[in-house]
Design goal:
By secondary structure, this protein is α+β, with helices and mostly antiparallel strands. It contains ten helices and twelve strands. The strands form four sheets. It has a four-stranded antiparallel beta sheet. Strands 6-2-7 form a three-stranded antiparallel beta sheet, with helices on one face. Strand 8 and strand 9 (about 180-185) form a beta hairpin. It is elongated and about 90 Å long. The mean pLDDT is about 85.
Length: about 425
């Protein structure tokens, strides 16, 4: 005799709640739309940081000198015809201040290094602007540093740089004290030189306000209109193709109604995530697609476990009501479903708390998807199979193998 929680009592309310949530998501899609990221929206995203210049480096000579930075130090890679190919290394541990770094670099033939910050300023953590060529020339190359107590520039101040120009959108990137901002500008595909023009416009607006010595372009991403449209269509095909293969697998392994119930549950989870993304205006990127596909795989696994138990209980439980089979099967697998979901959530919560940017959005989408996946595996797929098999009766062969009674109803009506 098996214990049974009467989940079937909550099938109708659960379906109504899901329909209301999905309907709300559709309304949000119609009114707010989706905040497409650069992957799906043609245009440019540039990450700009307001930070002071530590020192400048220039070169006058016949060799080719490229400057590189990392967490350990600064490197000058010397190459070219007639040059002694070598790499000059300036580690922060050996040259701990700006003054030390300037003095060391100035000893390299043809290199002119000048301090902009105080000579006693710590040299650790130098970074450069991607708007500068890493190949040194007579033009001064700026190395920026992380100011210990920076004056925080609010995101509203940055938005003021662009005034009422709706073609630009601005948001904070990373910690507030980092003074790093992400600027997005759209592209309608009418101008082939739009990428260069937008980059120059963004950079010039920052320079006019804060000065060239205090503006560093961290990175720039650009996606053309044709590529973004292609990527969006491929993403839709990818999700639909995944669902088709899952439906095919479930049909072969179980029955048609079980397979359709699994697909409906997956569609439910996908719509819930998309609705959440629309409500919160979270940026929709290729990482979000990865989160949706991850949840689809996770949810179908939970659903298959439940249906596998349903198939087993059809042969062993003595009953004339298919809802009893569903209730017992869900009761049998409840602890497994809860434990796997909770343990996965612990990792997702850690990702959400200790990461930023797209990875944080990925973790949040996964968290919502995990909750939805657990819910749909129990209530949505269960409700559909109960409806399709409302007139079910065990076959003569199944009656011969049914040896167990339904058992105790933990939530009696």
């Amino acid at each position: 005799m098996k214990k049974m929680i009467k989940f079937s009592r909550f099938f109708v309310p659960a379906v109504i709640i899901s329909l209301v949530l999905i309907a709300g998501g559709i309304v949000s899609l119609c009114t707010q739309g989706i905040n497409f990221g650069i992957d799906f929206k043609p245009g440019l995203i540039e990450e700009v940081r307001i930070a002071p210049t530590a020192m400048t480096v220039s070169y006058n000579g016949v060799a080719n000198v490229e400057i590189q930075t990392n967490a350990q130090g600064v490197y000058l890679v010397v190459s070219g015809a007639g040059a002694d190919n070598r790499t000059e290394t300036f580690r922060y541990i050996d040259y701990p201040t700006v003054g030390d770094m300037v003095a060391a670099m100035s000893k390299v033939d043809g290199i002119t290094a000048e301090a902009v910050a105080k000579a006693s300023t710590p040299a650790e953590g130098f970074f450069e602007s991607s708007s500068q060529s890493s190949v040194l020339s007579s033009e001064k190359f700026r190395l920026y540093y992380n100011e210990q107590n920076p004056t925080v520039v609010s995101v509203e101040d940055i938005r003021d740089l662009f005034g009422n120009d709706s073609s630009y959108s601005v948001k904070q990137s990373g910690e507030v004290t980092a003074n790093t901002y992400q600027i997005r500008a759209g592209d309608d595909g009418s101008d082939k030189e739009i990428s260069k023009k937008i980059q120059d416009e963004i950079y010039n607006r920052f320079v006019r306000k804060y000065g060239a010595d205090n503006v560093a372009v961290i990175k720039t991403d650009f996606v053309g209109s044709q590529f973004s449209s292609s990527l969006a269509s491929k993403a839709i095909i990818l999700v639909l193709g995944t669902m088709f293969l899952i439906w095919l697998y479930a049909t072969i392994r179980f029955k048609w109604d079980f397979a359709l119930a699994a697909i409906i549950a997956l569609l439910h989870d996908s719509l819930i995530i998309i609705s959440f993304i629309s409500w919160t205006q979270m940026e929709f990127t290729s990482t979000t697609i990865a989160a949706i596909l991850t949840i689809i795989g996770y949810s179908i696994n939970a659903t298959v476990v439940i249906f596998d138990r349903v198939r087993e209980n059809i042969r062993t439980i003595r009953t004339q009501n298919f809802k009893d089979i569903i209730n017992v099967s869900l009761s049998d697998t409840l602890s497994r479903s809860l434990i796997t979901t909770i343990t996965t959530m612990l990792a997702v919560i850690a990702l959400f708390l200790f990461t930023t940017g797209s990875m944080r959005d990925f973790a949040l989408a996964l968290f919502v998807g995990l909750c939805s996946g657990l819910y749909s595996s129990i209530f949505i797929s269960g409700a559909f199979t109960s409806m399709t098999r409302r007139n079910w009766k065990p076959s003569d062969e199944e009656k011969k193998t049914q040896t167990q009674d339904v058992g105790t109803n933990l939530f009696a009506e």
